[in-house]
């Protein structure tokens, strides 16, 4: 069974503060993708992890099948909620 690619956005917290982080995941459905992303975030040291959204992106021409092994492909760098509040002098 070929799996699908999903993007999963999470709100979490780390040592710097509250942030949003997104994961690229291969899974059977959006719920499974969200669970994989949540586990990856927790294993990377994020806490207070909440799933914001999980969606299947539009396929691009030339995309190859993703296979049949559920996995986390990668993540974005965290975007912190209070980045505009930093005052660097």
TrEMBL record:
Biased composition (Acidic residues): 56-66, 80-89
Location of the region described as Disordered in the Swiss-Prot/TrEMBL record: 56-89
Protein name: Uncharacterized protein
Source species: Maricaulis maris (strain MCS10) (Caulobacter maris)
